[in-house]
Target: Putative GST-like protein YibF
Amino acid sequence: MKLFYSPASPFVRKVVLVLHETGQTEDVELLQVSTTVTEQDAALAASNPLAKIPALLRDSGPTLYDSRVICEFLDHRAGGALYKGGWDMKVLEATADGIMDAGVSMAYEKRLRPVEKQWDDWLEGQRRKILGAVSAVEARWMPSLTGPVNIGQLAMAAALGYIDFRHPDAGWRAGNPQLTDWFAAYESRPAMQATRPDIL
Model:
């Protein structure tokens, strides 16, 4: 199998974390592409009509895309341990993906628009989504971030890692001491170290 990827993408990192934590890294070749909403990679677009990463080109069957689809496929392939929390676990993953969405939207606004056309209210609105989501995790989801590795942990780690990478001044740690401590410890996992955006 082959995975279309970019090292800076938090959605890609989530998938690669799943590969590491389920022992499937040797089964998937990483194909680096450069793609944005304005400049699509042709090979990626031929496999995924949305021209978005990650996209998993399987040995048989159509390409899988959307990180949640790919992660659940890889989890099933490895024996199905990451989603044992059921719907709660999927909601936690969706919350982390929302943090990623907001962070990527902010990055596009800053990197692709000329400075004079950047919309400060838009950026602040995305930042509020991030802060609201991490506050919800602090209040509701911390128990799901403990125990055996699960998709909620991997998604949240990828999301927070991306915010630190692209938006270090977002201020998500303020008022969230449990999540701050959890992430500081989780970053030391070998899978997290192997998938840092600067080395993936």
Observations:
- Residues 2-77 form a domain with the Glutaredoxin fold (CATH 3.40.30.10).
- The first strand starts at residue 2 and ends at 5.
